[in-house]
Amino acid sequence: MSTLSERMKQARVEAGLSQAELAKQLGAGQSTIASIENGRNQSSGRLVEIAQVLQVNPAWLASGQAPRKLPTAATSLENVNATDQIVVWENLADLPPDENRAWIDRYDLMCSAGSGIVQWEIRQKRALPFTVDFFKAIGSKPEHCRLANARGNSMEPFLFDRDMIMIDISKTAVRDGNIYAVRFEDETLVKQLFKQAGGALMLHSYNAKYPDRIVPASDETSFQVIGQVIYRSGSGLPGV
């Protein structure tokens, strides 16, 4: 069985990225990638983000025990090869029963102006299926996860307008450098968070056109961590 470091290097090379290029897309240092590929780091908290950039299944990257690619919805059942790892369907009834499948609903995420209340408005029940192994690999529970569509271009090239993201609402404790959905001054934002001196937080956008924003430690009324972004899916292209 391959090791994490071997799977990581294989996926990176096949994606045509150097260690430095992958690190840049993650907003991390090259040492983060090097420490995984040389075997020093076997439990990086950034495996989900890395898998998203490399377009592989986080569960496969973490353990090698799952399909390399995540199941992807399609619109037709024609010309399906039984050996393909991509599952396609036209209607939910076309899918065979699978105890290892967990369905996640899609929501609109909004903040009520002035009230500080985060609202989840359901848009599609049972929007996408994920394997139970996927959630085990990333340390999340399906009942804590919400799908939503990103808006805007502030996180390009990691996240493009209308990309699908999965938010784990149980993960609100900030880990330096991870990406979160947050409420700030009655806006819903997706940002990379960095801890600052004195308990402040820096909200960082991947897109250099957007300046960093600082949330003082004392600013509890206008700021809230909604949850950590643990998955994204999209075309990988800017919105038009």
Overall average pLDDT? 78
CATH topology of the largest domain: Umud Fragment, subunit A
User: End-to-end distance, in Å?
Assistant: 43 Å
Helix content: 10-25%
Uncertain parts: 71-85
Question: Oligomeric status of the shown chains?
Answer: single chain
Count of domains: 2
**How do the strands of the widest beta sheet line up side by side?**
2-1-3-4-9-5-6-7-8
Secondary-structure element pattern, one letter each: HHHHHEEHEEEEEEE
Q: Largest sheet, described in full?
A: 9 strands, mixed
Structural class: alpha+beta
What is the C-level CATH assignment of the largest domain? Mainly Beta
Write down how many β-strands occur, each being a DSSP E stretch of 2 or more residues: 9
What overall geometry do the principal axes of the alpha carbons give?
globular
Mind telling me which CATH architecture of the largest domain this is? Ribbon
Tags for this model:
240 residues, 434 Repressor (Amino-terminal Domain), nine-stranded mixed beta sheet, 20% helix, 28% strand, globular
